[in-house]
Design goal:
The structure is a homohexamer.
Chain A (H helix, E strand, L loop, with lengths): L10 H8 L7 H5 L9 H21 L6 H10 L4 H4 L4 H7 L1 H15 L8 H11 L3 H23 L7 H7 L7 H24 L1
Helix pairs in contact in A: 3-4, 3-9, 4-8, 4-9, 7-8, 8-9, 9-10, 9-11
Chain lengths: ~200, ~200, ~200, ~200, ~200, ~200
């Protein structure tokens, strides 16, 4: 059909990342919610969308932010999970936060090996892990906010026993400043307000 | 906890888009695969990742492409489905391709109403629907390629009865030219080769 | 084993309708309930059973009703969904109620093409879509009542966020009269009473 | 909203029958297919549809058949399962075929108690269990045929290990005669032919 | 790879028992919880673990108990279900308690036929069915307690409509005495207390 | 109902272990099989049953083995996963085998803290991790054999893409000797034979 071409190096990366579409976020199943509640891929989509909308608010208030970089980080921030799994939070207690970061970074590097001759994906990943750039911190905020919006959606549908997720909302450590911080806190505030209304009505 | 702030307009958009995490792609369930095979959100993640890797190949071969725009289009290209559902292909026969586009565009506009005072999301969506820009056509290619890689992954896991999805691969209409076309065809080629190997081994 | 017979024209229709056994009703997944909550086939079963019991009440109160016709309409009223999907309610806003009806009628006609040389299935479908006959209106009432009983069952099992489904119960438009109307309202009333008790106990 | 009416006796029957929408047919899960493959309600829908199409073929060939009765039997033939479960075939070996029938008949009688002051549902059920009438035998044929079409659909989607279901197709005991028998055998024949083609292509 | 050996008689037993990993406990699906809530195998694991911890408490208070026997009974007590299914409680009403026991014992005997030349598994099963030994009664208590802990876990996750399961906790008939009884009642008590706290908080 | 008793320390352990009933084995979902294919609890049940049958073969051939100890180890060998998750095999590459063992041992110790004043559960766990005793090595063999029987069952049901699991069967390192080794290899042999027959037939 086509004449044979030199094979581009991408397919095995994409095939491996397909697996994130099915990998359950263990936080839900460990708390008694059904399998299939949320895949890692679906969460990554949620984080990316949240990050895009937040970044556009940043831009609207004249905060200098590289939106392309934001979206790249958001899309790739959980790729290591295809090799190490979606470890529950408690796992960090036993492996240690630093060992976990190292292992995930090594896993990420192997996942992208085929496509990362320049090291640019790995650099973005490391930036995210270290929360170095504003873009990395923005994505981390989006990661937390998407989690809380997911919890809110589950609670609206009747799920209970998810209170511990709201603890993070009590003392957020977004490491942002000025208007950036304010925008993120506003969104957090509106999530908390929506949750308050939910439980007032029950 | 925080002093009340003027609520930013984003939350109800994000809550609505959460729904894509659970919405099944009907193509699989209609062909007898289990519920939960792939959500619209997981597919959007796959398209975005594929689009990012393709765009980086474009850049590597000096094709001028706006990667930020690519990623934005990829992330938002299926948002209308939260209001109209993931209609099977056959639906287009009965509604008409034009009516479907109009309905989806109207739905998209309503979904983003709260966050789209500038109309920029809607413009990206229309661009995608019309395949106007190179970026839109690149995302469309990624949409097809992610579908085929998903089919390949399902077939590797034992699924059958998905032959009709490969028809599109026979006469691809990506509307790309030159190196851009070649890169996309190379990836397609390597997918077809992997599939050929799969069925040779069975 | 058997001597070859002229193939009767039924099998591809039946194979296609099998797909309804797996197709999720999108109303539940869009509201955060798990995939597999209710298939279109399971709903059609519920409507048919409800319609049969209602029709027998009609008969018991000497209302002239063609029960065979009732059951036929109930069984076939959602067959078009195998081609156009189970569109969420909001879809109608964007396609228009009339376009949706036309598309679904065209899809239905194609689904039954093999078995409907007389046009009798299509006629029953059109009757249902237009709510022309008493039987069609009875099935429409059963369609709404089965939905509400499903919501009640889900709420009893802990589901929340389904309030909007009860709005339809506030101002029912069953287009029935006399004893027929009264029977349907009685059942509706007992559903509402059961729901009231559920939420009193929580 | 409405003035209180004497409650009609139907709701608890309908609530109980809702449970069939979720009850898995154990034949599939015991053979390693995923939970949610087919509910009892979905199967009942399949049987009813198959029975309707078959009955219409009977009518077309001037076989006297009461279609209303066919549809009633098809819809109610598995209601006892809501109380005794969907017992696997092997269960009959240990309980005995007669004890199983008696238990299921007693369960059916209790399920419909509220709505069956005339005993008409129970009479239809007993007719089905004894295969007395032509209508009962037609529904039994539809029960087997829907099972085989479901197996065919699963095999087309990649399922294996279901060979034992085809044994029944080898020596069908439909207890029908003349044209009625021929129509059913024709459909069976076309199912077997479709299966043959499926496995020739693999 | 290896030299052929005389095949040990175990594999078909193990293959058949694999099926319990997928077989749903019908109690949950009949009450509107999702398919996959709890498999028979997962329940057997829960009963075995509960029995082990209870037995160790017995030992700690100098109650003579054969822990190996406890664990054997716990692991095998539901194997008959692979042939007769997980019958809902109501099924016993229609089959009769004695007939159910006989059928399940016969099924169990067939399941273990290949590995039970000594009859020791069947003897343990009969002991359990008759609650003859202390070990059998301990496992029965663990069976009830695991059920209640599962209900508690589901309620914590938002499930409702499971009140009837708590009735058994009102008048437990564990047929135990002295310290053994006290240990079991203590655990029951702490379950009830945890449940009380759950519903006080809602 | 009962007079208050000093609460025994067991319930929170049991509640936490309930979570294993829902936690998916990630090996399956990462390979494209549906969520809910096998829970950690269901696998633990399978390992325990396999270990019991194997241990009884050992006893029958006069190999001294502590069956109670075997069953205890089999039941508890995966409890750490409730805190660290079911990490895929590749995870070990990045964390290191030793760090993984240490983390899991620490997690296990915390899981049983409430019930393990004597340290006996932790000792059994360490024994298993080090494969010190014959009983530990027997359970490890059962762990591998249950995995392979599960793969065989999935392949019989149509799953594909699981070849890599059979690699372990090529060069088994069960660290057993004499008759013990022979019994395990016999079972392995019969699994491989069954698999060979499966694929001959396809």
């Amino acid at each position: 059909m086509y004449e044979p071409l030199p094979e581009i190096q991408m397919l095995s990366t994409l095939i491996e990342l397909q697996r994130l579409k099915r990998l359950d976020r263990t936080g839900w199943t460990l708390r008694g919610l059904p399998n299939g509640t949320e895949s890692v891929a679906a969460h990554s989509f949620g984080v990316s969308v949240t990050a895009m909308l937040l970044a556009d608010k940043f831009v609207a208030r004249d905060i200098a932010v590289d939106v392309e970089k934001v979206l790249r980080i958001a899309l790739l921030h959980d790729w290591a999970e295809v090799r190490v799994g979606d470890m529950p939070r408690t796992a960090t207690l036993y492996f240690g936060s630093e060992a976990r970061k190292q292992a995930e970074t090594a896993a990420f590097t192997d996942v992208v090996e085929e496509v990362d001759s320049e090291g640019s994906y790995t650099n973005l990943y490391k930036d995210y892990e270290q929360r170095e750039s504003l873009e990395a911190r923005l994505v981390k905020a989006a990661d937390v906010l998407d989690l809380l919006i997911q919890v809110l959606a589950l609670e609206r549908a009747g799920a209970r026993g998810l209170d511990e997720f709201w603890d993070v909302a009590e003392k957020p450590e977004f490491n942002l400043e000025g208007d950036a911080k304010q925008i993120v806190l506003e969104l957090l505030q509106s999530i908390l307000k929506a949750r308050g209304e939910l439980h007032r009505n029950v």
